Amino acid sequence: xxxxxxxxxxxxxxxxxxxxxxxxxxxxxxxxxxxxxxxxxxxxxxxxxxxxxxxxxxxxxxxxxxxxxxxxxxxxxxxxxxxxxxxxxxxxxxxxxxxxxxxxxxxxxxxxxxxxxxxxxxxxxxxxxxxxxxxxxxxxxxxxxxxxxxxxxxxxxxxxxxxxxxxxxxxxxxxx
Length: 176
Hints:
- The chain has helices at 5-13, 18-21, 125-147, 162-169; strands at residues 25-35, 38-45, 54-64, 71-77, 89-90, 92-103, 108-118.
- With 176 residues, it is of the alpha+beta class.
- Strands 1, 2, 3, 4, 5, 6 and 7 form a 7-stranded mixed sheet that branches.
- A hairpin with an 8-residue loop joins strand 2 and strand 3.
- Helix 1 (5-13) packs across helix 3 (125-147).
């Protein structure tokens, strides 16, 4: 992707615009934030009309390897007292992540996405396979477009300095 890791991380952490680029996502908000790099998120995804929508409640945690500069956003389902009732079926996000690696002296970012999910409920394999084919490409193309939007900023990286953590705290909106 053309863009620094901080720009890519900004897109990943920007709840105000996430529904614009994540395929099938229609509802999205923070349930809790314990730091600029640790939060619990609610998301709901639309499926074809004959199937119940799926939603998730998951923890996202951002870490940075100080030696390599690689930033990882790890995500997995959790239970949370502020979670709303499900919109259809509460799916399970299992050990998923975005891995961001700096390239070309930091001007570009390599993105590896690993999403392991159990959609739960009754869903035929053909529908799961159909979504698995289109979701990654559509979502990553959407992320690429977001980086070029005028409101996209650079998110401070974890472990860089205490000062950046204070700035980052202002960039992650919380819905009470």
